[in-house]
Description:
CATH architecture of the domain at 205-245 and 259-275 and 282-343 and 354-409 and 419-568: 3-Layer(aba) Sandwich
Protein name: U3 small nucleolar RNA-associated protein 25 homolog
Keywords: Developmental protein, Nucleus, Phosphoprotein
Organism: Leptocoma aspasia
Domain UTP25 NTP hydrolase-like: 299-566
Subcellular location: Nucleus, Nucleolus
Radius of gyration: 28 Å
Amino acid sequence: MGKRRAGRELLRSLSKKQKKHLREFGEEHPFYDNFIGCYCCSCLHLGFPFQSEDSDKSSKESDSETEVEQVSGYHKLLATLKTSPESESEEEEDESESEEAEESEAEMGGEASQETGEAEEGEEDKNDVPEEEEGSTDIAEQMLSQEQADGRDTSCNPHHGVIEEFTDVKHESEFSLETNFMEEESGDCNADGRDSNPFKQHMDKELEEKEIEKMSTLPKTSSQSQAPRLGQLVFSSTLEKHKTLKADKEVDVKQLHLHKPLESTWPKVNKQFLSAVDKPIDSSFTPLQRELFCIMNSYRDLFYPERNALTNGEEIRHAYCLHALNHVLKANAQVLSNNAKRRDRKPGTDTDDHRDQGLTRPKVLMIVPFRECALRIVHVFISLLEVNDKKKIDVSNKKRFKGEFGSDPEEKPPNLKRPEDYEAVFAGNIDDHFRIGVAILQKSMRLYAPFYSSDIIIASPLGIRTVIGAEGEKKRDFDFLSSIEILIIDQADIYLMQNWEHVLHLMKHINLLPLDSHGVDFSRVRMLNLNNWSKYYRQTLLFSALQEPQINSVFNKHCFNYVGQVAVRNVPLTGSISHVVVQLPHVFRRLEAESVTSVIDGRFQFFVDKVLPEYRDAIMSHTLVYVPSYFDYVRLRNYFKKEDLNFTHICEYTKKAAVCRARRFFLKGEKQFLLFTERFHFYKRYTIKGIRNLIFYELPTYSHFYSEICNMLKATDNGVDATWTCTVLYSKYDAQKLAAVVGIDRTAQMLQSKKNVHLFVTGEN
């Protein structure tokens, strides 16, 4: 009875939102994670200032709106808990809102109601709860005791108070680098020799203080070259002179100095990407992989802004997984080999030659947006380590990993049709709050390894941020980032839609001296780590779907690799405006700004004084204002309210029922303006019907969003094509975004001219 009473008290202590999320997802939302206190809240505030009544109410539900429903192992159990009176009243309120939304959608008629109905069906809340409380509590106790008997982690269950992450301490000794030795058949990484082994050549180079001072003070020199597949490459460095990157058409795997098992497994794992054209030339790499891996293997920093989830995303993932795993295997093999040498050495022998470690063990940090990405990375690692079907590697906690990072096969995707790129990005488990340590030792892999016993850490920006913490917090830790040798940031553009502050916070805390020794043997630590020069040896691999100033800033200001940097800088020739299929006049209106910081206020004043007055007339109804920044959206919304304009608004925090009402009001002309945020479009990709006039308050972050929004005008064919308009606001600081929309040639002309530019697209231009 005591346990049963404690369970009821715990349920009563939860707020309405917590109870709702508990019923739907089987666990507490990370927003209320006790492990990080109230930190997640402040963390989210960094990206989005919550203002006014609607956004305040709906901000706490932002994550549940933008994530696919995940069904955990506790879902069925928790679904049997009886609904409390408070939550029942909330359910009734939500149901009434949903009914109202359905009624409003029914009035829209035809295709609009069908589309929204499918969206409602695909994302419907599941609140059906039986009424047997005592029986369900007994089941909960049985499951809890069973899990504890099996040795499984129960700390992530919301019933257990403080939420702690599961870490595998059972296999600590088996994966310890200090107590293991090199197996003969695993190969010795020292056999390659320093001159030919890129790993040893990079890590064993001893920089001088003059060189460090030079890199800290002098600007980088840059030069350009052309690659057959990558295109225009920009090489920049302070110390190294530019060397032409040779990506030979024929690459022998043995010439790449891969660790022994990878030489035989890589061609098998990568054959799915090889076309019939590629096979006669190269039996192991695609043309893109060949040139990318050539740069990776030279240990230069790399920025590739043309990653596409539909076309080359998996190719790139396999390439950087090969490089990361090759680095870890060589580093561990060096340590294990030196362990044997130290064991066999004569007493009194100087052991200073065996400096082969960092201040902490983690060597590779991989930042990815969703759990599905982490799942695919681990699967690639396993495939690369398994030499053949007979020699399976031992993967600890594999079943648990699949359960937490995989998706439910019985879960049906929403019936709403969405673009192919959306389906590719949001495939599988799209939870964005996770972190996991991976330890690799010869023929075994350990998932959920403690960070200080891990070789590779895979995490999302939010997952790593909640561990790093903020200044002044008692429970924070970033020592495990002190000796990171390879940093991989994949799909960086998605973090602009999540919270870019998390990435910046990570970059400020990586490669700092640890506050604790963590049991390290200082006689084995490299001098570069003791001198706090780790950041000058760290290789950063940055992959994105676009070139964006914030991403460029991270690559230029937070990467200090002494070998230099390589960035792919191709310019778009046509732009996404060529994909607009409706006949639509485009007016690009240039606003003047003295600096980047003054653009925000200058754009708002330009919109209020010169653009908005032209659309106040009732004739200019059905006007959608596309706003990329949430800050600008809040500012415009407050101004529209102050001016008492007839408008409605949709943002990423708007509830589903409110979205339906806003779409209905806008379609029927009851509201003249619709404020529409880019982040909502990124996560939902709904087709907004009834648009006659478009205003791009700022150019979209993703260039293909421009053509998508413009093509929404064809969704309602009511014979008013001639009245369609499209107005775009831009400044000289929007050169990259402008080029992605109209092409490089038009961009050069528009930036030189201070006049408004009128373009008429017929669907073929």
